[in-house]
Amino acid sequence: MQLFDVALKDIDLSSPEFWNAPRDYRESAFAKLRNEEPIRFFEEMDFVFVPKGPGYFALTRHDDIWHVSRNPQLFCSGKGSNIADLSPELNEFFGSMIGMDDPKHFRLRSIVSKGFTPREISRIEEYVKVKARTIIDRVLDEFEGQEFDFVDAIAGKFPLQIICEMMGIPESDERQIFNWTNTILGAGDPDFTGSLEGLMEAGIGMFTYAQALGEARLANPTEDLTSVMMHAVVDGERLSSQEFGSFFILLVVAGNETTRNAITHGMVALTENPDQRATWFNDFEANTKTAVEEIVRWATPVMHFRRTATQDTEINGFPIKQNQKVVLFYNSGNRDERVFAEPFKFDVTRTAQPTQIGFGAGGPHFCLGANLARREIAVMFDEIRRRTPNLQITGEPAYLQSNFINGIKRVNCRIN
To answer: Is 413 helix (H, G, I), strand (E, B) or coil?
Structure first.
């Protein structure tokens, strides 16, 4: 990574042009903020489908992000987890529990977490391995010696098929789910949707699908995560069909998009750093735990979430007033020179402490599916190591145009 000096006055994290700029420029700008103005106010812009808001403070250092995440009584999620204040219509479909505070958040998380217990994760362990094997079988059969899209053939299919299996979604519906998730998280990228109508159509479609699935499992439970959640009772209450619909969108979108981007960024990094690939693949079991954490740190698939101050407070002595927004830039925190030695070096043996924040920085909103994502990343790279050890990225990634998801839409590869 080539860092260079960027003038503070030229940095505007609210500008779409900033997020479409070359990545070395973006990394240089975040490094400048971390070192000279780690908490900085930015005006909001009319961005994508939301009106201009009152502005926000960008947090770019690891420790400040950690502090805010672990003090939900001072920095709430209930006023929004996106930078912009979404309309009631968008909140209805895309809010779910990431935009809630306790006690409502605790109730909902207590219910849905029943589907992510060690018992539930171990129940699908063999399926995860079988699915990875099946995907690589198909790739070897269809593409050996040819160039193909790594995202479409491997990284996109794998977590999507696993989450669909967990939720009891039939294979025939997987492509529709995939298209909905692309539209929802690709808002603002011309490859996916260019209108509010397109975004709402995807949200309504997925929400309606989820409600029908939840009601079907409530009436006739089966051995899937949907049935577990629809029949779970906490303090005498079950999920409403609307709560399940919103959570379904969160779970399916997050369970697909973030893991596929971690795997894709990981494959790009291993191709660009053959020494690290050799270190991991030559002693896979010994290095898997740190390698997976490094892939998540390196990728940081979700680049930010927002919190709102519940009272006048401070962050490292910096005053924050009640109702002001703070935005936690995880991508910057995961490159913080104060925390990570040589943060722009991809190192599969990097110690697990201090903690990377690609799954969030602790607190009540830490990623519910983190352990499942870790397992999926480890299993897929084990399959690649054993079956296609010479798989290489051969082209430049086509990056998602987004200030929220660090996505790769397409990238060519070849099995040599």
So the answer is: strand
Give the mean model confidence (pLDDT) for residues 139-144.
93
Query: Could you read off the pLDDT of 274-302 as tens digits, one per residue?
Result: 999 999 999 999 999 999 999 999 999 99
Q: Could you tell me which residues come within 8 angstroms of residue 20 by beta carbon, excluding any fewer than 6 positions away?
A: 401
- The gap from C-alpha 175 to its chain's centroid, in whole angstroms, comes to 20
Tell me how crowded residue 198 is: count the other CB atoms within 10 A of its CB: 16
Distance between CA 322 and CA 62 in Å, rounded? 22
HEC sequence for 229-244: HHHCCECCECCCHHHH
Q: Is the omega angle on the peptide bond into residue 103 within 30 degrees of 0, that is, cis? A: yes
Assess contact for 137 and 128: CB atoms under 8 A.
Answer: no
Question: Which range marks the domain in which residue 358 is found?
Answer: 8-415
Residues 6+ apart with CB under 8 A from 88: none
Total number of domains constituting the chain: 1
Longest dimension (CA), the chain: 61
Rounded CA-CA distance 99/81 in Å is 6
Q: CB–CB of 182/400 below 8 Å?
A: no
Residues 345/92, Cβ–Cβ less than 8 Å: no
DSSP class of residue 9? Answer: G
Segment 152-209, tens digit of pLDDT: 999 999 998 998 988 899 989 998 998 888 888 776 677 766 566 777 888 889 889 9
The domain that holds 100 is classified in CATH as 1.10.630.10
- Residue 255's pLDDT band (boundaries 50, 70, 90)? confident
Q: Is residue 49 part of a domain?
A: yes
**Who's near 27: CB < 8 A, 6+ residues apart?**
1, 3, 335, 344
**Is there a domain that residue 144 lies in?**
yes
Alpha carbon distance 101, 328 (integer Å): 17
Instruction: Report if residue 105 sits inside a domain.
Output: yes
**Band of pLDDT at residue 50, cut at 50, 70 and 90:** low
- Compute the average pLDDT of residues 37-55: 84
112 pLDDT exceeds 90? Answer: no
Question: How do beta strands 147-149 and 304-309 pair?
Answer: unpaired
What residue type is assigned to position 398 of the chain?
Answer: A
Beta bridge partners of 415: 391
Burial class (CB in 10 A: 0-12, 13-18, 19+), 231: middle
